[in-house]
Amino acid sequence: MATLRVLIWYVISILYYRKVKGGNIDVHPSEKALIVQYEVEATILGEMGDPMLGERKECQKIIRLKSLNANTDITSLARKVVEECKLIHPSKLNEVEQLLYYLQNRRDSLSGKDPKLFIVFANINDMDEYIELLYEDIPDKVRGSALILQLARNPDNLEELLLNETALGALARVLREDWKQSVELATNIIYIFFCFSSFSQFHGLITHYKIGALCMNIIDHELKRHELWQEELSKKKKADILLDCLLDEDPENQTLRKDYEKTFKKYQGLVVKQEQLLRVALYLLLNLAEDTRTELKMRNKNIVHMLVKALDRDNFELLILVVSFLKKLSIFMENKNDMVEMDIVEKLVKMIPCEHEDLLNITLRLLLNLSFDTGLRNKMVQVGLLPKLTALLGNDNYKQIAMCVLYHISMDDRFKSMFAYTDCIPQLMKMLFECSDERIDLELISFCINLAANKRNVQLICEGNGLKMLMKRALKFKDPLLMKMIRNISQHDGPTKNLFIDYVGDLAAQISNDEEEEFVIECLGTLANLTIPDLDWELVLKEYKLVPYLKDKLKPGLC
User: Fold this and answer.
1) CB atoms within 10 A of CB 128
2) Is 259 within 8 Å of 240 (Cβ atoms)?
3) CA distance to 59, 174, 376, per residue, from 365 (Å)
């Protein structure tokens, strides 16, 4: 009886925690409906609230749009869908609207077949039925591939799918033969192989079916299609602008304006579907690029040119993937040279700053890799990145990486003076004085050392009590790098050099064998720069007994 009471108490004491996370939104392949992917994470908590058992499951919800027809107000319907479906974040309203427009204009190609043939929850035991769909017409192939994709999205099914050579062979064949006929079909099949590409042990399978090379061809084709769409849209837009200028109310002109609006809506719907295809294809290639030999093959097929072209897109998720891929490739000189040919810096400048934190962070890291090249540093300054990067110094999330890029730019003497026309130096001085550690961050002090080599920058550094604060900190912590910055400050003629009169004694007092040699060398260098007529060096040498120290250090063989 006592044991039963303990068991009941234990069961009551545990808690159940459930977390739902929204994911991608797609159109139903056969019905007028949206498919919302989401993830459910269930955790059983113990008496003290610590997790005892957890499980994660990928699910999907189908939103059927029975009222959708040619006359439906898409904007209002999209707003209603987002409001009623808690799985869709309000920020995806525009994406939902574009998908609804696509559904509104998609032809019903079921050919009289029952739309219920689309099985929401696929079963690994029904694989033979799904394979048979791959031998039918395009709508059936789309349904079949969508069902297999559901299975592939669960990692537990991948090994069993790997053994089904018939299915994999059929998928590869359909992709090779029919990818131009249906974007949904191509996206589904590439997504299936992408699921395999997430695990290195399955990369041989993808190589065997030459999916990587096929993805390269598909990406190249889709990018060219996008250029054609933009050209067509641009022509109609120019005509629309001309009509606005003429203020012509002629019925024929009104028809042209409506034609442009319709074309633009169609373009938006096509771009949404195309970007889904590009994302999954590029992600698959990025996974395969773990092998440097495979990466070299991609480079020979102009992967860099394709990626840089894709930077013109506005889809944040696609851009994050593209920039991440470029960052990986940029560590090799050949890839970096290809990026130079494609004017990559001009394309990256629009992303700094941007609202998306992950995109901004990965873009800065790509710029850091590129900033090792002198020509690209020059280009960064030309396109106006200097003030943009300086503005990021005030943000803790990007301060460190932005400072590293600026440090590289400051290595070139021709660019040092440009920092004086930004608010960079006041920010750096604030960071220096607020640093609580004995040793200042290497990136920060190195950057300051470079800037102190320019006379105009030094004038800003010494404004107010700037030099006094620097000297006080350097002498307190015996910091050789901070003293190196002060040494650079002391080399410039003019009013700033005269400020050192008050610190000659402090500097001379550091010259001894008791101090760290690097620090003493910087103090000596600073004193050597003080070519001030009114300074009595004989008195300094005698008062601080510097002659014996200097004679000892100047003996042959000691340096």
Assistant:
1) 10
2) no
3) 34, 39, 14
Q: CA–CA separation, 146 vs 491, rounded Å?
A: 71
CB 448 within 8 A of CB 466: no
Model pLDDT for residues 513-557, shown as the tens digit of each residue: 888 999 999 999 999 999 998 889 999 999 999 999 888 888 877
Indicate the pTM of the whole model: 0.78
Distance CA 167, CA 130 (A): 9
Cβ-contact 58, 37 below 8 angstroms: yes
Residues 6 or more apart in contact with residue 49 via CB below 8 angstroms: 15
Question: Is residue 103 within 8 Å of 65, Cβ to Cβ?
Answer: yes
Mean pLDDT of 213-242: 86
- Residues 117, 136 contacting (CB under 8 angstroms): no
- pLDDT per residue as tens digits for the range 74-112: 888 888 888 888 888 888 887 888 788 778 776 553 333
DSSP percent split of the chain into helix, strand, coil, nearest 5: 70, 5, 25
pLDDT bin (cut points 50, 70, 90) of residue 118 is very low
Cα three-residue angle 505-509-515, rounded to 5 degrees: 150
Secondary structure (3-state) at 41: strand
With beta carbons less than 8 A apart as the criterion, state whether 431 and 397 touch.
no
> φ, ψ for residue 314 (rounded to 5)?
-115, -5
Three-class secondary structure of residue 68 per DSSP: coil
8 Å CB contact between 415 and 379: no
Cβ pair 326, 362 in contact under 8 A: no
Per-residue model confidence (pLDDT) at position 116:
36
CB-CB contact of 93 with 9 (8 Å): no
**pLDDT for 405 beyond 80:** yes
CA separation for the pair 146, 186 (Å, rounded) = 10
What tokens appear for 486 in the block?
């002060």
* Listed residue (455, 421, 435, 426) closest to 529, CA to CA: 455
| Interatomic CA distance for residues 379 and 373, integer angstroms | 10
Residue that wins the pLDDT comparison between 244 and 453? 453
Name the residue ranges covered by the structural domains of the chain.
7-105, 121-209
- Nearest 5°: phi and psi at 536? -90, 95
Does the structure show a pLDDT above 50 at 114?
Answer: no
Evaluate whether 70 touches 44 at the Cβ level (below 8 Å): no
Reading the block at residue 297, the tokens are 């093959």
Model pLDDT, residue 11: 44
DSSP summary character for residue 355: S
Give pLDDT, residue 243. Answer: 55
Q: Choose among 349, 342, 356, 347: nearest CA to 385.
A: 349
Q: Is 27 helix (H, G, I), strand (E, B) or coil?
A: strand
Between CA 275 and CA 286 the distance in angstroms is 16
